[in-house]
UniProtKB/TrEMBL annotation:
<protein>
    <submittedName>
        <fullName>Flippase</fullName>
    </submittedName>
</protein>
<feature type="transmembrane region" description="Helical">
    <location>
        <begin position="111"/>
        <end position="134"/>
    </location>
</feature>
<feature type="transmembrane region" description="Helical">
    <location>
        <begin position="378"/>
        <end position="399"/>
    </location>
</feature>
<feature type="transmembrane region" description="Helical">
    <location>
        <begin position="41"/>
        <end position="62"/>
    </location>
</feature>
<feature type="transmembrane region" description="Helical">
    <location>
        <begin position="411"/>
        <end position="429"/>
    </location>
</feature>
<dbReference type="Pfam" id="PF01943">
    <property type="entry name" value="Polysacc_synt"/>
</dbReference>
<dbReference type="InterPro" id="IPR050833">
    <property type="entry name" value="Poly_Biosynth_Transport"/>
</dbReference>
<feature type="transmembrane region" description="Helical">
    <location>
        <begin position="353"/>
        <end position="372"/>
    </location>
</feature>
<feature type="transmembrane region" description="Helical">
    <location>
        <begin position="205"/>
        <end position="224"/>
    </location>
</feature>
<feature type="transmembrane region" description="Helical">
    <location>
        <begin position="247"/>
        <end position="267"/>
    </location>
</feature>
<feature type="transmembrane region" description="Helical">
    <location>
        <begin position="83"/>
        <end position="105"/>
    </location>
</feature>
<feature type="transmembrane region" description="Helical">
    <location>
        <begin position="141"/>
        <end position="159"/>
    </location>
</feature>
<feature type="transmembrane region" description="Helical">
    <location>
        <begin position="7"/>
        <end position="29"/>
    </location>
</feature>
<dbReference type="InterPro" id="IPR002797">
    <property type="entry name" value="Polysacc_synth"/>
</dbReference>
<feature type="transmembrane region" description="Helical">
    <location>
        <begin position="441"/>
        <end position="458"/>
    </location>
</feature>
<keyword id="KW-0472">Membrane</keyword>
<feature type="transmembrane region" description="Helical">
    <location>
        <begin position="320"/>
        <end position="341"/>
    </location>
</feature>
Amino acid sequence: MSIAKNYIYNVVYQLLILILPLITVPYVSRILGSNGVGINAYTNSIVQYFVLAGTIGISLYGNRTIAYVRDKKDELSKTFWGIFILKLITTALAYIAFLVFIFIIKSKYTSIYFIQSLAILSATLDISWFFMGIEDFKKTVTRNFIVKMIGVVCIFIFVKNKSDLNKYVLILCISDLIGQGIMWMYMKSYINKIQLTFNDINKHFIPAVQLFIPQIAIQIYVVLDKTMVGMFSTPSEVGFYDNSQKIVKMTLAVVTSMGTVMLPRVTNTFAKGDLKKVKEYLVKSFEFSSYLAIPMMFGMIGIANEFVPWFFGNDFLKCSSLIIIISPIIVAIAWSNVLGMQIMLPVGKVKEFTISVTVGAVVNFIINLFLIKKYASLGASVASVIAEFAVTLVQFYLMREYIAIKSMFNNIWKYFLASGIMLLFLRIIGNYMKTSIKTTVVQVVVGMLTYFVLLVMLKSNVNNYIINIVKRKFLKKTI
């Protein structure tokens, strides 16, 4: 399947994960309030540590390893079963550790913790890494759409007041669990039943752990901030921070999907020794990511004040400021996704990748310690932005000998210029129109048109490529 089709499928997949729950966010925010939303986010952040410990670095490792052997069915089968059984063992140990944790802390959120722990079982059954490794994204998208839609319907039916927090968490967890289970229905056509030796399982442990180390670092500044806000502040502050992150990360899904698609492709290309093609992928991917990420950053800043009140409700007005502060991570993560997921990991620069994300984790933790106690969710937002840019800068430095930095940035100024002008239009519209869905829609439409037209005038490579694709598709239909 082509990179373009895989990218589209993976964008849809990532957006489904985020958008379908976001359909319920305005409703849930009003029903459960900032306190209920915060409790869910806080307890989930704790459980995610056990998910991380159970899956070690298997998702990244599995994706990359399957890409190496996808053309040999027997080897593919042996690799899949070896990786899966290893994950089965490690997630079982993680769940035992979770039970010990619950027994020790005796939290008032114990019932919610137990419901959230279904995420550990979901992680056990998760084989999305296999389908990403063979570059088959269509099945994952279809499965997610059906299951997530059922979950959305259940939320509107069963969650009616603040006391239904447990039901809300259960619906989210069960939906994910069922979705992971359904993927197993497709496996017969891809793999064979084989006999495994202990070595077939054990040989994956050390390589997976090597990718587990950067995963720990990444988790520190993805999840630890919510944990720290919950520890040093209030559940409501966690709710503000969590909802703001959801909105920003919804846009990120469109950008970072390229990394998931390109990792197996670059890995396979690198395995064939075609280094020239690998560098070609890097330059094109970096420009495409910038083409999307930069206007999304300016766009989120431009619409935040008018978007938050009607979407989240008056209980979450603080999210406006948080979204504006957090938005720059869209660009930072887009660039680090290209460098890390599309170059460092595929070509085996795991050590360099680990160093970069560890720097980000340390920076995030230290700044959180200073800012969260005084500024709560605002402090966590600032820390996240600084940490993400620290990761990106370190990756540029560590890979400076392998990449042509100057050529990568040749056209980036065009996207900043067009986005800056677009932001001016968004603020003019926001200042003259009242807060409403209509205002947000007008801002988004005008913003997209302004950005696209300006890039036509600036002769953007990506813009021209998209226009040519549309022209070819149109000509085919008219002939």
